[in-house]
Amino acid sequence: MGGEIVRSLVYPQLFTARPDGGWAPSLVEPGSVVEADALTSVSFRLRAGAVWSDGSAVTAGDLLASSDERFVSSVEASPDGVVEVTFTQPLPGWRRLWSGQDAVLPAADGLFGGPFGVKSVTPGLVTVLEPNDTWWGAGTDEFGGGPWLGELHLVVVPSQTTMLQLFERGELDVVAPWASPGRVVVLEELAGDRVDVADASGWEVVALANPDQLDDDERRSLLTGLESSDVVSSLLKGEAWTVENLNTSGAPFDERDPADLGFVPTITLAEDIPTLGFPARAIQLVAADAGGLVPELRQAPTRLVSQWQDEGDYMVLIAPLYFGPSACLTCAYGTVAPGEAALADAGEAGPLHDVLVDHALAMSLWVPLRAVAWGESVQGVEANGYALFATWNAWQWWVE
Q1: Cys-Cys link to 373, which of 7, 143, 191, 264 (CB 3.0-4.6 A)?
Q2: Which residues of 327-345 are buried (b: 16+ CB within 10 A; e: fewer)?
């Protein structure tokens, strides 16, 4: 997650996720987007003056080099500067490409094209960013006139308890802890009216069952334990809400008794994100009650868990999944069901949704609310449940 946050600030993105659930043009020239009727392609212009920190232009070639081949078949620029992107399938949620968790990457290391550049990195501790004077949005009214900060320190904190302690001591200026029991109350006790809670979210906490390590029946057996989990109403009241886009109201996960597994599975989760252990323990309890082999928990920092997720190194993974403003199941679950990558699905109902449900590949658990708190000297902070983190508009922050 930390790497994605840095990339979103130092590299260009086509669009910025807005708190109202929309995409605002960033690298894309406002008003230039033209979508094909079947949404198999789209065209747009890049901002005039969009350059990397060495002065070279951001081009369609940069988009192509950093594109996802599962979804993008070509990126071409016409002589008059119109960029045309052709998709491998109809893709209504295409704005998630090169936006949100993704960005346009430079051809060489050390180049930056976002509002900030990297000044220094202390691995595992802090990344220091500084304003990028070549950013096309610098000083414009559209982007709030910034960046205003001389430096932005992104600090890695091993736990939310430590994070809140550092915030209380004034050693952190902005915090946005994950949903946990009583989180908003604690933030209000620490920061008073300097707390903002987003009323909508582009995140979901999900359980993913790996088809490369578990067959259909084994996946159903393990996900059965989640159906009796009541985490939101009992522990996360006011902090999250339940969703139905992959919930199946009892089917098909009840088709196999957890006692029949015959081996000890593992459940992987990030140890630094509170509450992820609750659904994992629900699976363990159901297996124990049925007389089956109790799954083992494999916990590690988010950075390592994200690596395992990308590599498919898990049996069951419980993790927050970023959807952004546009519901694009194809984008979000492309690595979960790679054999179904051709199934276009930009919403809650469609062929990919049916595959995920019928084959017990994924199950949505809850939507976490985004809450952010800040210190007395920082201004311009705003909660955005559709963004990656609280730094989504950091170029608009200033210090009094």
Answers
A1: 191
A2: bbbbbbbbebbeebbebbb
